[in-house]
Design goal:
This protein is α/β, with parallel strands linked by helices. The protein contains 14 helices and 13 strands. Strands 3-2-1-4-5-6-7 form a seven-stranded parallel β-sheet. β6, α6 and β7 form a beta-alpha-beta unit. α2 packs across α14. The chain is globular and about 65 Å long.
Length: 348
């Protein structure tokens, strides 16, 4: 079977969907039994066959994207995988499409998103899932959301994704002071303002707060930090590459990730793989993914977040306990397992 894989998220993005697609392509090359073909506006570093389609890189509104050239027939593809909801819109027909849905948060929490993101999902998401050959939901929470809010009869398979860590090492972190780590795009759903407020409420914290992630929307994180009474202890690093992020996980007191909603929560598993204790929310897929292996908090309650940060910063035994639990929990998320289920349950 020849299976196309839409890889434009690797080329166009820096956020979680980028890393997911990178790791998916690598996993298909390493574990896949079918013939996988990468499709995007540029080629990437991969051993898999690649098809460069320049119109994949243009806007959905650009006329060239909607040319009628049949890529399925031309390249003898049996179906294709789209890891970014409906990123392939206009390029490949939905009836051959396996959609990977990470979450539907723009529909559930429109106030957290840019209007065009909400509008596109409001107009397209339901019909796109209905017309797709198959849908993969990356958590039980996401599958439940799709069935409840979009299409109860859709052909959906829940498969947890894998999470990889690099085999390379880096000396990027040379800090002598202890720190807690926040990871995520700077947008309202990630709840970073409450994290900062919780940090400010700790009496004389003997650690810093390090915030990592690309610039997002509806937030002015630089201004918020500049106005903080603990601004000297809050470090904004912006986007960092994979090796630097992993070095930060390895030396952090804990990952602080009390997002208001997630369809999975990749930083949770990434931190666990590195032996980094995790503080995360007691709701949505974060509770599902973390199970009993993280310090769960109410993300709307600043005091709850503050107490967790303080407790983990002061109690080395508690940190060690969550470290060991996290390492065990992370074993549930492997790319070999994802590919195996993809081929046996979706592509079969």
């Amino acid at each position: 079977m020849r299976v196309g894989v839409y890889i434009e998220p690797i080329i166009q993005q820096q956020a979680g969907i980028h890393q997911f697609t990178v790791q998916l392509a690598n996993a298909l090359a390493a574990f896949g039994q079918h013939q996988y073909v990468l499709i995007g506006s540029k080629s990437i570093n991969s051993t898999l066959e690649q098809i460069v389609v320049s119109r994949a890189g243009v806007s959905l509104l650009h006329v060239s994207r909607w040319m009628t050239k049949d890529l399925i027939t031309e390249h003898r593809l049996d179906c294709f995988i789209d890891p970014s909801h409906f990123g392939s819109l206009g390029l490949l027909p939905a009836k051959h499409r396996i959609a990977i849905v990470h979450d539907i948060t723009p529909l559930l929490f429109p106030r957290f998103h840019r209007w065009r993101t909400y509008l596109s999902q409001r107009v397209l998401m339901k019909s796109w899932i209905e017309r797709s050959k198959h849908t993969i939901a990356i958590s039980h929470q996401t599958e439940s959301d799709i069935r409840t809010h979009l299409q109860p009869r859709a052909k959906i398979t829940h498969i947890y994704p894998g999470v990889n860590i690099s085999k390379e090492t880096t000396d990027f972190v040379s800090r002598s002071k202890r720190y807690m780590l926040s990871v995520g795009t700077a947008e309202p759903r990630k709840n970073i303002y409450r994290v900062i407020e919780a940090f400010e409420g700790i009496e004389h914290p003997d650690f810093d707060l390090v915030i990592v992630g690309p610039k997002g929307w509806k937030m002015n994180l630089q201004k918020r930090v500049a106005n903080s009474r603990r601004s000297s202890q809050i470090k904004l690093l912006g986007f960092v590459d994979r090796n630097k992020l992993e070095a930060l996980y390895q030396k952090a007191l804990a990952l602080i990730y009390p997002s208001l909603y997630e369809g999975f929560g990749f930083p949770i598993v990434e931190a666990m793989l590195h032996g980094c204790p995790v503080i995360t929310s007691d709701l949505s897929a974060m509770k599902e993914v973390a199970s009993e292996s993280a310090f769960l908090v109410n993300p709307y309650d600043v005091v709850s977040i503050q107490n967790a940060m303080f407790s983990l910063s002061q109690n080395s035994e508690l940190r060690s306990n969550f470290c060991e639990k996290g390492k065990d929990r992370a074993k549930a998320f492997t790319w070999s397992g994802f590919v195996s289920r993809l081929e046996s349950e979706v592509l079969a």
